[in-house]
Amino acid sequence: CCAIQLTDQFCTRPLGIERRRRAYRLAYLGCESSQWIFEAVVLVGWQPEIRGNGFGQLLSRGGSVWIGFGTGLARFREGAFTFFNAADGLPPGAIVYTFTDHLGRLWLASSRSGLISVENPTASHPTFTIYKTTQGLSSNVVSVITEDGYGRIYFGTGQGLDCLEPATGRV
Q: pTM for this structure?
């Protein structure tokens, strides 16, 4: 069905997501009092521009669910989907992985357009900062993202592992 990101961030572990007619069903593990609890929620409010199965899903600090697609990015918040694509500044390429760093910034891995940062993921109209080979990436194909204890962002590309210092934008 989709790629799965396992993370201890914010005490949730997304397990999978599937489309069921006009809704998504998201399964995840949550923890309460140090015990893991399986939960499944149904996200309704399907929009026609959201097509296919989602991948790269993430439960963010603000309570939103972010789901990457081949045609863009969807956010499920307050009972409704919002879909972001080229008209919103999102570059072309599937969003194959999502990651939230310790400051709450959302990071996206694109199959064609490198690494994408969302500094304001809780905003109604978030802005996207794009890092590609022209900014120093070894490849515009990014498949995985993580962070070290110093806040540096590491991401796997089609040509190897790259590192970004978010404070300076230096790759």
A: 0.73
